[in-house]
Design a protein that fits this description.
Blueprint: H1 21-43, H2 53-58, H3 65-82, H4 94-104, H5 107-120, E1 125-132, E2 137-143, E3 157-164, H6 171-174, H7 178-185, H8 191-201
Antiparallel strand pairs: 1-2, 1-3
The chain binds manganese (III) ion.
Manganese (III) ion binds next to α1.
C-alpha cells in the first residue's frame, strides 16, 4: 500500500493573513506531494514499503537517505497541517498548559525557547516540542526533514508540536524575515491537536 498525500484539512486561504494561500498551496501540493511520490519510489520493492511511517522513521539509520528525507518530509508535513487551524492560536489549555507550566515554569519561557529553536536552526529544518524519554516536555530542533522519532535524532521523543522553518514555508510572504513568520505561527496553532498528541504520547 503506497503512501498518499493527505488532503489539507482546511482551505489554502484559511490561515490568512498569517500564512498566505499561495504558500499553502505550493507547500502542500508541490512540496509535500513530492515527498510522498519520492518516498514511494524509494520504497519500491522493499519490505519496508509495508511498514507504517512511524516504524520507518524509528529504523531510519538502516534505510537509504531518500527514505530519510522523503519519509521525514511526509511525516513532518502531515503533522504540521493538523497542528494549524483557522482561528487557532491563543493560550494552550488543559493538559498541555499544565505540562508547559510544569516543565518550563511558564508559557513565556516555552514561547521563547521554541521561537529561539526555530530562529537558530541554520538552513532548513524544524523546531519541535517533544515528550522526551523522561515523559517531560522539551524543545529541540532538527535539520532538513529529520525529526525526533528517528533513531538517529540527537534527542529522541514524540513530537507534539512542530514548525517548518524551511524558506519554502514562509519566503513568498515574509522573504528573509523568519522571525515574523514564527511570530505569526502562534496565531494558527491548533492547541486541541497538541493536547491529543500529548495524551497519545503518555
Ligand atoms: Mn515544508
Amino acid at each position: 500500500m503506497a503512501f498518499e498525500l493527505p488532503p489539507l484539512p482546511y482551505g489554502f486561504d484559511a490561515l490568512e493573513p498569517h500564512i498566505d494561500a499561495q504558500t499553502m498551496q505550493i507547500h502542500h501540493d508541490k512540496h509535500h506531494g513530492a515527498y510522498v511520490t519520492n518516498l514511494n519510489k524509494a520504497l519500491e520493492g522493499k519490505p519496508e514499503a509495508g511498514w507504517s511511517i512511524e516504524q520507518i522513521l524509528q529504523g531510519i539509520s538502516k534505510l537509504p537517505a531518500a527514505v530519510r528525507n522523503n519519509g521525514g518530509g511526509h511525516y513532518n508535513h502531515t503533522m504540521f497541517w493538523s497542528l494549524m487551524k483557522p482561528g487557532g492560536g491563543g493560550s494552550p489549555k488543559g493538559d498541555v498548559e499544565a505540562a508547559i507550566n510544569r516543565d518550563f515554569g511558564n508559557f513565556q519561557t516555552f514561547y521563547d525557547q521554541f521561537t529561539n529553536a526555530g530562529m537558530t536552526r541554520f538552513g532548513s529544518g524544524w523546531a519541535w516540542l517533544i515528550v522526551n524519554a523522561d515523559k517531560k516536555l522539551q524543545v529541540v530542533s532538527s535539520p532538513n526533514q529529520d525529526n525526533p522519532l528517528m533513531d538517529i535524532a540527537e534527542v529522541k521523543g514524540t513530537p507534539i508540536l512542530g514548525v517548518d522553518v524551511w524558506e519554502h514555508a514562509y519566503y513568498l510572504k515574509y522573504q528573509n524575515r523568519r522571525a515574523d513568520y514564527l511570530s505569526a505561527f502562534w496565531n494558527v496553532i491548533n492547541w486541541d491537536e497538541v493536547n491529543h498528541r500529548l495524551a497519545a504520547a503518555k
